[in-house]
């Protein structure tokens, strides 16, 4: 078996970048009282009011049980409300409350600052190239799945 040094493994660089972004967002979201998964859920709900927990889990890249825990914590804080779907009584629709919208707005200011700082580190051409290369990574990795 041939080994490849970690410094040559693209996956390790992607993971380091993901971890750095996650840690930075966790730090800037802390004053809002949100975790990164809670913020992602609120953002997803803001863009898709009434979305089911399963669909929101897929959108946020977490498992349905994890999303249910996130949603329970948000509901306990009165940031979201969950009501039975009009036609499908066993499906809960999830929506932001006014307090949830206010908390998201505060948190989003901090998260957007991180995203803008990250974007500003690159020229327009570099950003476009990076987004394109990351997209190619996703496509290839999805094809490689067994």
TrEMBL record:
Coiled coil: none annotated. Pfam families: MarR_2. InterPro entries: HTH_MarR-typ, MarR/SlyA-like, WH-like_DNA-bd_sf, WH_DNA-bd_sf. Transmembrane segments: none annotated. Residues 7-139 form the HTH marR-type domain. This is MarR family transcriptional regulator. It comes from Streptomyces roseolus.
């Amino acid at each position: 078996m041939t080994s490849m040094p970690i410094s040559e493994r693209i996956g390790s660089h992607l993971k380091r970048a993901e971890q750095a972004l996650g840690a930075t967002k966790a730090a800037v979201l802390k004053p809002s009282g949100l975790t990164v998964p809670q913020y992602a859920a609120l953002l997803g709900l803001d863009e898709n009011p009434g979305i089911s927990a399963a669909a929101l889990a897929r959108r946020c890249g977490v498992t349905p049980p994890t999303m249910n825990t996130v949603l329970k914590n948000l509901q306990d804080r009165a940031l979201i409300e969950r009501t039975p779907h009009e036609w499908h009584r066993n499906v809960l629709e999830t929506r932001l409350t006014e307090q949830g919208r206010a908390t998201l707005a505060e948190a989003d200011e901090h998260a957007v600052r991180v995203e803008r700082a990250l974007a500003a580190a690159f020229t327009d051409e570099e950003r476009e190239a990076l987004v394109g290369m990351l997209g190619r990574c996703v496509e290839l990795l999805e094809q490689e799945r067994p």
